[in-house]
Amino acid sequence: MATPLITVEGVSFAAPGGTVARPVLRDATFEVAAGELVGLNSVPGSGKTTLLHIVAGLLQPDAGSVRLDDEDVWRGSTSRRRELRRTLISIVPAGGGLPPDRTLAEAMEQPLRLARVGRRDRGTRLAELVELAGLGADARRYPHEVATDVRWRAAVVRALALRPRIVLVNEPPAEAAEDVLRLLAPITARQGAVVVATDDADVAALTGREIRLADGEVHGVGDEARVRLVEPPQASAGSATP
């Protein structure tokens, strides 16, 4: 079997709060292969945003490891994780993450500017992105001036600006889900990987495979789940308990 693009192994995380840390993830373990579109499905507050941030190298886990294209994310430096987010992986946060003070076109151009893409190439790529998102005149509007599906198309295409192989999408709304998945289809067709986190069962059903997250633990759905079910770690003396 080919090396998975995403390997999450024994990841645990407890959020600080009060005198006792609150467990959010407990020994989460799963893989996502090249060419897969996976739905990460859970009720609100079950830790899917935390898990996406750990996979993207934005939040360090308390235990466990994350490998992206066989590279251990959390053994590298901060600058290397930043480089991975520029060249390999991109994340669309809940709400889309578009800056409110920039037009949709300016927001989509921003990753290209940060990557120091030359003006000519940047203009060419931006035109491609505007066309891909089907924005038309909306490209000159601000996020609050356009419909939800338009805003999300811009947010997803912005995440594709630097041609990542892995894309993580957090909580796309139901009314934009089909557009989001259509825009991401070329990623999996090119043997990349997409993970869509959602608490909407209808959105999760549009993906190729579901991973369910409940009480910080990972569960697979379907015969092709390829998700190892794990027992939650036993609480030791002095450790936080659920």
Describe it for me?
With 242 residues, the chain is of the alpha/beta class. The chain has a domain at 99-163. The chain has seven helices and ten strands. The strands form two sheets. It has a six-stranded mixed β-sheet with strand order 6-7-8-3-9-10, sandwiched between helices. The protein has a four-stranded antiparallel β-sheet with strand order 2-1-4-5, covered by helices on one side. Strand 9 (209-214) and strand 10 (217-221) form a beta hairpin. The protein is globular, with a radius of gyration of 18 Å. The relative contact order is 0.21. Mean pLDDT is 86; it is low at 222-242.
In terms of topology, how is this protein built?
Blueprint: E1 6-15, E2 22-32, E3 36-41, H1 48-55, E4 63-68, E5 71-72, H2 78-87, E6 89-92, H3 104-114, H4 119-133, H5 148-159, E7 166-170, H6 174-189, E8 193-198, H7 201-204, E9 209-214, E10 217-221
Parallel strand pairs: 3-8, 3-9, 6-7, 7-8
Antiparallel strand pairs: 1-2, 1-4, 4-5, 9-10
Helix pairs in contact: 3-4, 3-5, 4-5, 5-6
